[in-house]
Specification:
Structural class: alpha+beta
Radius of gyration: 16 Å
Shape: globular
Strand content: over 45%
Distance between the termini: 45 Å
Length: 153
C-alpha cells in the first residue's frame, strides 16, 4: 500500500530540508517522538533508533535514511523491529514553491501478516490518517521554532 501526503512550510528549500532531516531534532518537530540515538552516520546516510510514546507505552525501532542533497530527497526504511509491518519504506521530497517549500511524504508499507484482520485494518486506517496530521504538526513546530530564531537576530 502506498500513501502520499504533502504540506507547504513557509521557509526556503535548503533550510527546510536541513532542519527537517536533522533526526537529532525530531523530538522537537514530531509530536510523539521522544528520543533519538544515532547508531551510524556518514555524509549521506544515518542509521538511528527512534523512540516514540504511543500514549500507552514507549516503543522504539531502528531506521536507515539515505539523503540525496542534490535532488532534495530522502529515502528511509524501518529495519528492526519491522513489526507491525512486513515492509515499510518512505520517501521525502522537497520542492521550492511560491509559498515556501513543499514537503511530500510517500510511505509504502505492508501490514504484518501475523496481525489479525482487525489489527491490520486499524494499522491501515492509522497510516492513511496520521501522516497528514503529523505533517501539519511539523509545519507548525518548524515555523514557530524558525520564527523564534529569526526574532532573536
Amino acid at each position: 500500500m502506498k500513501v502520499k501526503n504533502e504540506i507547504i512550510i513557509k521557509d526556503r528549500l535548503k533550510e527546510v530540508f536541513e532542519i527537517t532531516n536533522d533526526v537529532r531534532n525530531w523530538p522537537l518537530l514530531f509530536k510523539n517522538y521522544t528520543k533519538v540515538e544515532i547508531l551510524e552516520e556518514d555524509e549521506n546516510s544515518i542509521k538511528f533508533r527512534l523512540f516514540m510514546n504511543d500514549g500507552q507505552k514507549e516503543i522504539s525501532w531502528i531506521s536507515l535514511r539515505k539523503t540525496d542533497r542534490k535532488k532534495f530527497s530522502v529515502e528511509g526504511e524501518r529495519l528492526d523491529p519491522i513489526f507491525p509491518f512486513d515492509y515499510m519504506k518512505l520517501k521525502w521530497y522537497y520542492e521550492q514553491v511560491k509559498e515556501g517549500t513543499k514537503l511530500s511524504w510517500e510511505q509504502e508499507f505492508i501490514p504484518s501478516k501475523s496481525l489479525d484482520p482487525a489489527d491490520q485494518k486499524r494499522l491501515i486506517e492509522h497510516m492513511l490518517n496520521s501522516p497528514q496530521k503529523e505533517l501539519q504538526y511539523i509545519k507548525e513546530r518548524y515555523e514557530r521554532i524558525v520564527k523564534k530564531e529569526k526574532d532573536k537576530d
